[in-house]
Write a structure and sequence with these properties.
Elements (H helix, E strand, L loop, with lengths): L1 E5 L8 H14 L4 E5 L44 E4 L8 H4 L9 H7 L7 E5 L6 H9 L2 E7 L2 H20 L5 E8 L7 H7 L1
The chain binds adenosine-5'-triphosphate and magnesium ion.
The site of adenosine-5'-triphosphate (ATP) has 13 residues, from α1.
Length: 199
């Protein structure tokens, strides 16, 4: 069971789009995919639900882990091989909910031990900040994929993410690897974006 986080602290770089497409590609390869949304707008969950704020069971219902078993937030859909774990606005209270937990960033990782072996791949979509949700994704993942746009700002911001990755490696998940940087929405031609992309 591979656990792959998708993260970048710059918004709108294509994290969720990449996560969704990667999940689809794995599913087509007959892999059983669990897609975990860790973003409070529920962008990854939206294709699976009419209104994400009406979904009865979302990730926050099992964090911290004494609230309920992981399977209660795993939804079944018409998408063969893909099960989503949705999120919605309730994720906004994550930091508050987990404040009393000493190792709050481990809570998400712990939830996957309950479903060990049921999936080939778990994909975790992080939000565009470096708060607890992102740290939880990095702690729960074996590898992280970093989508970015071919712009100075997008590339520079990976520095902050790298710092958090190093901290997570030191404190919670020493084997966390950066699986790759994915250049998204690059324009072709001799402009600045394509020069950055080619570096
Ligand atoms: N390769 C692409 N070509 C065109 N549009 C794209 C591409 N990748 C993403 N988009 C569009 O860009 C917007 C932002 O993408 P997405 O929501 O995946 O980014 P994100 O990094 O997850 O954003 P956030 O940080 O807000 O969670 C969406 O409207 C998406 O459809
Ligand atoms: Mg997103």
């Amino acid at each position: 069971m591979k656990k792959i986080g998708i993260g970048h602290n710059k918004g709108g770089v294509g994290k969720t789009t990449f996560c969704f497409c990667l999940g689809g590609a794995f599913a087509e390869m007959d892999k059983r995919v669990l897609m975990v949304d860790m973003e409070q707008r529920g962008s990854l969950s939206s294709p699976f639900a009419k209104n994400i704020n009406d979904i009865p069971c979302v990730i926050t219902d099992v964090l911290p882990d004494d609230r309920g078993p992981t399977k209660t937030v795993v939804h079944k859909t018409d998408f063969e091989n893909i099960d989503p774990v949705p999120a919605n606005l309730t994720l906004g209270r994550l930091e508050n909910d987990l404040i009393s937990e000493r190792d709050s960033h481990y809570c998400l990782a712990d939830k996957f031990t309950e479903i060990e072996g049921q999936y080939d791949v778990i994909l975790l979509d992080a939000p565009s900040n470096l708060g607890l949700a992102t740290r939880s994704v990095l702690t729960a993942s074996e590898g992280v994929i970093i989508p970015l746009e071919a712009q100075d700002y997008s590339v520079k911001r990976t520095g902050y993410l790298d710092t958090v990755i190093q901290k997570v490696r030191k404190r919670g998940n020493p084997s966390l690897t950066v699986l790759g940087y994915v250049t998204n929405r690059a324009t072709t031609g001799g402009d600045r974006s394509s020069r950055i992309s080619s570096r």
